[in-house]
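Researcher: I've got a protein sequence and the SMILES for flavin-adenine dinucleotide. Could you write out the 3D structure of the bound complex as structure tokens? I'd like something to compare against our soaking experiments later this week.
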Amino acid sequence: MTTKSKAYLIGGGIGSLAAAAFMIRDGNLPGGNISILEAAPILGGSLDAAGDADRGYSMRGGRMVTTDNYECTWDLYKSIPSLTRPGKSVFQETVEFNERHQSNSMARLVDRRRAKTPVASMGFSMQDRLELLRLSQATEESLGASRITDHLSPGFFETPFWHMWSTTFAFQPWHSAVEFKRYLLRFMLEFSRIETLAGVKRTIYNQYDSLVVPLQTWLADQGVHFVTDCRVTDIAHKTEDEKFVVTSLQCVCAGESEAIAVSDGDLVFLQNASMTDASSLGSMTHAPAQRTKAESGGWTLWERLADGRPEFGRPQVFNSSIAQAWWESFTVTLKDPSFFNQMKQFSGNEAGTGGLVTFKDSNWLLSIVLAFQPHFANQPEGVYVFWGYSLFPDRVGNFVPKSMTECNGAEILTELCGHLRFDPETTATANCIPCRMPYITSMFMPREKGDRPFPVPSGSKNLAFVSQFVEIPEDVVFTVEYSVRAAQMAVYELMGVERKVPNVTPHAKSHLAQFEALLKAFK
Ligand SMILES: Cc1cc2nc3c(=O)[nH]c(=O)nc-3n(C[C@H](O)[C@H](O)[C@H](O)COP(=O)(O)OP(=O)(O)OC[C@H]3O[C@@H](n4cnc5c(N)ncnc54)[C@H](O)[C@@H]3O)c2cc1C
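Model: Sure. Here is the predicted complex with flavin-adenine dinucleotide in place.
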């Protein structure tokens, strides 16, 4: 690797943006030597957020972060200048924002009577506690590709703990037991404060405006090349000293085929698949289209590379069951404050302090979050935006005789106002944009060792994987942190950077006894 070496990043999600930043900051590679090739028209991948007051805002996700974990993310953002607070970093502006707006949910679960459910008790039976303890201490080898339901009895899935934990992190009973165990240990500190979400931190605006834009701006200042509307369709390689060496990338950029030569010493980072692949937006009058990977082509490159190469993982483990992986979110734009005012009256929380409100008995398992306003950098005064999602969009609603997947935005608002017992006038000015995501929890599918490649697979000379579908011991997927950690690991290994990747904070090891005590304490 020399200062003449080039780096090609396939995909423009936060993982690639972070990898570019680590190469510049810690690997001393000039930004002008780095190209990011993204199939979509903009960068940011799953961390999208767009729109305006008239067309309506939309974002596929609303993200919670923590400052007790997210070690690599904050290591990165301590170096990225804030765009809203001159002289400060994104890390500093986020910490200061969270000191001003602390999470303290007073309406975490709402039942079918529209009553706020007491959540001081986790609702565990003795059997639940024993089973949870056993699961948290089991080895990953012994858990293998088992599911959460293989280890916890039916009663556990009716406890307030499960309702809160599963909707905070989007777990389904059929998901990977290994990943569930990792979450218990990684987010052990959240265990004792899950009912108020007190450990959750938020970004000032949505994560596109607050995380992607500042990072992209810094990378642009360093001279990084961004190539959008460019899909890499194939990777040519040679074998040298029994190592896999990428020699060129085949792309379709703005409709034109082209090949990019990869020379000796150059590096290639691939974002192998995306949780938001094949997602689609609806409108107030239309439900989102039902797309699959066959239309998007988003998994094809990883499938092609992994064919006959076990060290590159097994994509089919993650993308073969939309029924077990999908759900829907929605973003609502309002031009008057009545919904926000009524929510404040009902929940006792100012927007930005409450976090998720889950309608635990709703057929769709509906949750909403009212973030601090404005939630978009370009959001005018007098406009309000909130986000929500449902874990069971295949079920018929309680107030709309249709599955969520068949519903347009207006029907989703009818269902939501039904659970809240709000008059329909409360959302008279609302524009609700639904979003279907067929692979949103594909990372949680039961998996075994070898199903995910390491960030730098054994036998690879210049190709790394940076995504939610790589193997990182101890860390948990469905987080920004996982992609940033994958990026930092891949860059440091391929470039021989001596600085250490920050450790996964060992809450788990030092707190196993505490976990046991917590389980005993929570009845
Ligand atoms: C609804 C939702 C809620 C979430 N909640 C949280 C949360 O609370 N906390 C948290 O930390 N995280 C959360 N996340 C997860 C977090 O957003 C993701 O983990 C992270 O954004 C993934 O980043 P990535 O760069 O790995 O992949 P992505 O953002 O998926 O980016 C991959 C990119 O690669 C591109 N690409 C792939 N193949 C090719 C190719 N062959 N050629 C060109 N381009 C290609 C894709 O188009 C895509 O843009 C949430 C995500 C969603 C969607």
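Model: Residues 166 and 521 are 21 Å apart (CA to CA). The chain has a mean pLDDT of 95.
Researcher: Great, I'll pass this along to the crystallography team.
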